[in-house]
């Protein structure tokens, strides 16, 4: 697994302080991040692949300073956005999944093979030729995951990956995330999704307020919400 570190990380958007002096070392295979709306979860995980650069402090992935080596870090960190429309870049479902691989210079045959396997894995094979933007919200979320996972990143970050999914697909994504070989970091409001993870971090007003095994951390979070 990779080692992700946050050292004295703070972040402000204008006057608004969103993260305050966060220090964490993450090495576990499955890490959940929970917290109230606006607590700073997305901002925190976006720092892992350089989508947000901290106002102060340092974020590293396997020793690389993300702020200085964002391109290199992004090759090993796959990021699945909450809103799949943000990351659909190609006209058809198949082309969208193949896009990441084409940028990596793989052969046509290999791209076709890996794309077909990814579509199959996510139940999207029947939609391969369909316009990606016409998929349902849930199908788009599955497509976003397929397009990230097809590149086999070392770390998968998913920011609320089940928001648009029905109960069946939500369970399916939960099982899939749990079964991946990769290190997985999930931001979610669906607490059962991270209940069997190795570690859960609770963020409140930009600070880590609980951090540990899911049962203890989720109890602390439920107490905060009550
Ligand atoms: N690009 C931005 N510009 C200005 N403010 C922002 C920006 N991104 C986030 N914020 C603000 O920072 C705060 C934290 O946002 P963030 O998205 O990190 O929270 P979150 O815990 O992921 O919330 P949610 O559970 O609602 O998705 C919020 O008040 C949000 O409005």
Automatic annotation (TrEMBL):
Its EC number is 3.6.3.-. CDD domains: ABC_cobalt_CbiO_domain1 (cd03225). It is an enzyme of class 3 (hydrolase). Keywords: ATP-binding, Hydrolase, Nucleotide-binding, Transport. Residues 4-226 form the ABC transporter domain. Pfam families: ABC_tran. Gene3D superfamilies: P-loop containing nucleotide triphosphate hydrolases (3.40.50.300). GO terms for molecular function: ATP binding; ATP hydrolysis activity; ATPase-coupled transmembrane transporter activity. The keyword DNA damage does not apply. Belongs to the ABC transporter superfamily. This is Biotin transport system ATP-binding protein.
């Amino acid at each position: 697994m990779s080692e992700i570190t946050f050292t004295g990380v703070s972040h402000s958007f204008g006057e608004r302080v969103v993260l305050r002096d966060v220090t964490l070392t993450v090495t576990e295979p499955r890490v959940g991040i929970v917290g109230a709306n606006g607590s700073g979860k997305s901002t925190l995980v976006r720092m892992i692949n350089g989508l947000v650069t901290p106002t102060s402090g340092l974020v590293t992935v396997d020793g690389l300073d993300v702020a200085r080596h964002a391109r290199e870090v992004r090759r090993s960190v796959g990021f699945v956005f909450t809103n799949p429309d943000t990351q659909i870049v190609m006209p058809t479902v198949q082309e969208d999944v193949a896009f990441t691989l084409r940028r990596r210079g793989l052969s046509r045959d290999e791209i076709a093979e890996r794309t077909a396997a990814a579509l199959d894995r996510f139940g999207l094979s029947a939609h391969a030729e369909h316009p990606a933007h016409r998929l349902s919200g849930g199908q788009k979320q599955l497509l976003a995951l397929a397009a990230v996972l097809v590149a086999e990143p070392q770390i998968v970050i998913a920011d609320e990956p089940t928001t648009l999914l029905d109960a069946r697909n939500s369970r399916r994504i939960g099982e899939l995330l749990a079964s991946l070989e990769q290190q997985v970091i999930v931001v979610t409001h669906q607490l059962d999704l991270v209940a069997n993870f190795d570690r859960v971090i609770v963020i409140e007003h930009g600070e880590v307020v609980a951090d540990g095994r899911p049962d203890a951390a989720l109890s602390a979070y439920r107490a905060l919400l009550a």
